[in-house]
Amino acid sequence: MKYTIIVCLGFFLLHFSASAQSKKLTIEDCVLKGKNILAPEKINQPQWIEGRTALVYSRKLNGVDCLIKYDWRKKPSQVSWTVGKLNQAFRRLKLDTLTKLPNVIRTGMDGFVFFNNNNLIKYDYRFDSITFHLTLDKKAENMDVAKYTTHVAYTVDNNLFVLMNNGTVQPISNDGNAGLVYGKSVHRDEYGISKGTYWSPKGNLLAYYRMDQSMVTDYPIMDLDEHPAKEHNIKYPMAGMKSHEVKVGVYNTATQKSVYLKINGPADQYLTNIAWSNDERNVFVVVLNRATDHLWLNEYDANTGDFVKTILEEQNNDWLEPTILIQFLPNNNNLFVWQSQRTGHNHLYLYDLNGTMQKELTHGDWDVINVSGISFGKNKIYFTGTTTSPLDQQICCVDATTGEMQQLTKDKGIHSLYLNEYTGDYLDVFSSYQIPKVVSIYDRRGKLRSNILLAENPLKDYKLGQTKIFNITAADNKTALYCRMILPPNFDSTKKYPCITYTYNGPHVQLVTNGWLNGADLWFHYLAQEGFIVFTVDGRGSGNRGFDFEKCIHRQLGTCEIADQMKGNDYLRHLKYIDTARLGIHGWSFGGFMTTSLMTRTPGKYKVGVCGGPVIDWSYYEVMYTERYMDTPAENPEGYKKSALTNYIDNLRGKLLMIHGTSDDVVVWQQSLMYIKKCVEKDKPIDYFVYPGHLHNVQGKDRIHLLQKITDYFKQNL
Amino acid sequence: MKYTIIVCLGFFLLHFSASAQSKKLTIEDCVLKGKNILAPEKINQPQWIEGRTALVYSRKLNGVDCLIKYDWRKKPSQVSWTVGKLNQAFRRLKLDTLTKLPNVIRTGMDGFVFFNNNNLIKYDYRFDSITFHLTLDKKAENMDVAKYTTHVAYTVDNNLFVLMNNGTVQPISNDGNAGLVYGKSVHRDEYGISKGTYWSPKGNLLAYYRMDQSMVTDYPIMDLDEHPAKEHNIKYPMAGMKSHEVKVGVYNTATQKSVYLKINGPADQYLTNIAWSNDERNVFVVVLNRATDHLWLNEYDANTGDFVKTILEEQNNDWLEPTILIQFLPNNNNLFVWQSQRTGHNHLYLYDLNGTMQKELTHGDWDVINVSGISFGKNKIYFTGTTTSPLDQQICCVDATTGEMQQLTKDKGIHSLYLNEYTGDYLDVFSSYQIPKVVSIYDRRGKLRSNILLAENPLKDYKLGQTKIFNITAADNKTALYCRMILPPNFDSTKKYPCITYTYNGPHVQLVTNGWLNGADLWFHYLAQEGFIVFTVDGRGSGNRGFDFEKCIHRQLGTCEIADQMKGNDYLRHLKYIDTARLGIHGWSFGGFMTTSLMTRTPGKYKVGVCGGPVIDWSYYEVMYTERYMDTPAENPEGYKKSALTNYIDNLRGKLLMIHGTSDDVVVWQQSLMYIKKCVEKDKPIDYFVYPGHLHNVQGKDRIHLLQKITDYFKQNL
Question: A126: which of A374, B455, B599, B608 lies 20 to 30 Å off by Cα?
Fold first, then answer.
């Protein structure tokens, strides 16, 4: 059935070669339009209605933002709501009206649940009326709405509260402060943690984090908008230094009491992957030691906090990085899916609560990327994986009963998957380098039922250069590394071009894919238009290639990454159309670390570098990320020394521009400032720029200034 | 007699044209040698022995630092001490020895008084022995030694103590802290204040400052050497905001009690010019209102603190800036010398304690620069003044009895003067653009008695370009402005050269003089050698031209300064050998303010600017300096708005590099950071650099990096 789409999408093909393409990109285009009108159209917030056959999503219809309920089984298949239509119900109840389409938190059988400012609203889509509303504290943040009960957990400053569905407020904590934080994400959002509250399945109990960070050192951030400037301190645990101490509490809305899980071990260990048993009796926590080489999946009694048992343990000589909650098979209190990288790739395993592995669900030289869900009745687990290539993400399912796996998609590119667990229908959101975006509904048999979006090529009027995808061999002489090269429009292979390498090469990030623009930023095409070849190679250590590919960075961040970037550099140098005297390098964050590493640890290989928000010395980066890869400075002094870029300043040749956001709370400003200080001490020329008030990345319209500055720097110096 | 010198100095003349001059300057030369071996040799710490005929000073003799006692009346005229010779006396007493020549605080009839670490030493030069020593608290700072008694006032942290000459310690305060400071300089060193203690003439009583700055806002300075970075707050009162509150105490070492002078007026007024009556009975203070347009010279009873009387008042529609203590005629408790700019120039007046002006001692279209002293018996006041030209400082004296004034020197250049009040001999330290340094002793009749230094031309081996001094007419179409232009070596008037204007144009500073190198920095000659013409004009508002010249800046900093710099720009544009498309501008501090002003308020007039430590908005600069010229932001909103450079960013054309020391506690870092922030918001290209850990000026060897950066910026962009 996929071929049907390809045929009907034929007009998208070869979109970079038609003669009508004459417009040139501007930097303003890249920044201001790159994520909207120059990006493929998409659908927003897709979700299947719980227990029903319909999909809810939002997109523009005739230029107006609409919330859409879509069911291919019905006629008419589509019902839509504009802000105006929704507001009729708000006006009837004299509630504050919406100013834009709400973000729907959940769609039940009887309505959409969403917030409008600090009001929780349930809108019954059947009768177009508001059937329920609650008003929260104006300062409420981190709202988390329980299924079924619709109780709302939220924080005010650093304390945690529940607004019960009867409108009463239950305070869970009252001693929160800057040093003691309740109900918020912990461990600096590492290990898959992005929130601090976890409702039980029936919505009666709330597991939550309590983080004591009073012992963590302060780092000062300067607020330049004050007169005079003021500093405010953030808690920033640096590698090897005191880390915060986390507990998991369970609050019972009936008894209005909390218990803390009785978790053994050092206070600075990691508590991740909080999950509930279906019957709400037990809470599961992955306990990971600070050394991140040993984890225990533990079960605790939700009422008493008592330790019940360790279900399974994993150890790894390099590191462990559990990020995905365990997921029970539907209506099953014993069998659950566990994800592990133990084979060198991320795969799914079926375990029972005694810790016995029942089945190796997936295996092979590829990675499970994202599990969407498990179909009821059939126990089929739907997920995406890099089954055809590390550059692709295909939709697959595996039968938990038989172990039979199927790859449901074939086209090269990136598929995202949204499973309707109730019907077995699934939504396929697809893009490839040729196909901007296709969103399709398939039924449980894999039959295409509807293309709800066929996005037009947003760049059809622009003259873009050719993108080439290929691979080279890593410095280990065996691993394939994927590369992307963007050529200038009107490329002439008999000429010589300057080339900018854009790099990251750090964990979790994959720059080259078979998705739209092959993963490239639109600005790279602007650079190509300005006469540069733009090259990227994802070296060992980077994302979506599996643990074996990643782990060479252990205890030596920078080392194998540099070696692989040098393979890219070698490759460029053998191309006749590259001006080898004019090779540039650019990257941000880990890519800033890499750029500075390459400018000084492989001197002369690049003439000009631009780095942003760079890690200069891993002992100034945070505990959670750094120690996973590097261990502590005391445990690995050689590794820290070898990667500390202040030790290579003498080697700096060529021109290097370093950039930092002054309010960066990820890679702190001190990192680049201390590098500049050392360059001055060593009388080494270097250039510097700051984005005052900006965080780790320069976002918003100020990004125009950033991209112009980088572009100008390469133009003037490369 | 001066002509004698000129003849014997004839070999210094024309030192820029001889054929042996072939060496080229380097930036390292300018920074590392510019203040020592490439600067004219000088004598250090000259002082006349109290009540005696001999001069004490230090200099190198045969390459060794020596302390020298010199008396032209004696044979041998010179006795000298090396560190080794002094240390023999230290060893005899088993005291810590000197590691370098001490700074002699005072030379009495019986010895040198100096500190070695925290030991106060009196070295009897007659017998080469140490006759007195006292040990201070290791944390002692701001040591102030009383005449005759040799009691030592000093601070530890923020408290004030006296170490009595019998070795006992008398604490004067005990409640000092960061917000309450005793015995240190106040009012941010404005109004001639550089210390916080003032011993009475006989050394029994101590007047001292007490500053309450608890109400002053904090400004955070980031300490990048900590791991992680820490901030420490300084008290920084910004224009129009709460200012500190100062009192004057008088401590009596006999009663061990303090009284505070009963000074009326608002707590945030300025208390300046603390002076004593000869009989120690009274203390004189100039009370200046915060608006700095009204001052009272008041007399207080030193024992009770009671107000005695106001001796004189001055008012000025623009501002008043009293900086010089009153000075009584020798052995006279009634007549004193008062300095005032009331005529538009700084002049001397003889007053009695009833406030009656007895004599206008000096007058005319020139300024008294510095009074050295008054000769005993003769009552002749010796001073330097700009009698021949604003570019010169000549030695003069005026007879306080007859009012007769004499100019004692004639040669164009800068004379410094050290009067021996006892004998009437005086030391003339002279330099001109031709004469590196001549130090001569004259007797009371003006007869040359000795040339104790005839410095060799330190640049005789270097090939430097010609320096031209000339004047142009200010934007008021009448005032002469002095200019300096340094031409490249091998200048060819048929060619065209890029030109960098170096500017300051703010109060107190005069860049162009008839002194050595005509006041130029050696680096300007480096720039000339690199092919730039380097130009400076001292516009209205700048120093040593008198109050009438300065006052056009009142309530409108930047306005007439820009107009005058534009006259300089016009002048450059009419010269055939200047490439008018390649005009650059550079300045630091007020000169950074001017550079940024000129790049944006006269857009297109300069192609490239480099500014350092710039004031961007006067409402972020400190109370004492800013309100004197600008009044408060509430009193002068238009003036602040007109001078605030964030309002002109839209006009920025060409290239501007802004530089700041991250620990700058004079012009705070926030000033440039907020400018960069606004440039980013307005999408204006600008370049930036920081010197981490540096204060208001980049000093030490890191200055090499700074000058290279500025040079490179002009080379690459101009």
Answer: A374
